[in-house]
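Appendix B. Raw example, untouched.
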Amino acid sequence: MTDLSILDNYETNGKLIPFATNYILYPDGKIYSLNSNKFLKKVKNKGKTSDKYYYTYDLGLAEKHLVTRLVMFVFSEHEYSTITKMPKIILKNNDLENLSISNLTFATQSQINKKHNIIPGEKCLLNNNNQKIKEDQIELVKTLRSKSFSLKKIGALYNTSEMSVHRFIKKYSLN
């Protein structure tokens, strides 16, 4: 456990990250390590297009964390118990370098599509009910998950993506 008395030396607007208590996160997205006594360097990752990118931090946990998700999890008011349950996050002013809490907001995929003028493809427009795993398959999917079938394997059975399986499981609370 971290000696909290040393926190007096740091700005008061920083907060300990709940699931990584040796790190102090600031509202502008910077992270200070109590292990090394210095600020961590953000890792720049390529996005889907050449003009897009995003930043992550490696906190020595199982996975890297998006800076925007860390900031929203720690500094925004929400009801999410874990960082993975939060919805998507967008930048209000599209400045990819401004990762402060004042520039972040939660968003649905529909809001993201409207913001970036993304129009659904012809297939989406023609088939509004394109869910490949039907409701009558809930028990079967539950059984497959209990037998440690991966999302990829389940997706292959239904000729759909891992993400579609993930959404199905989330929609019907099959966790």
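End of appendix B.
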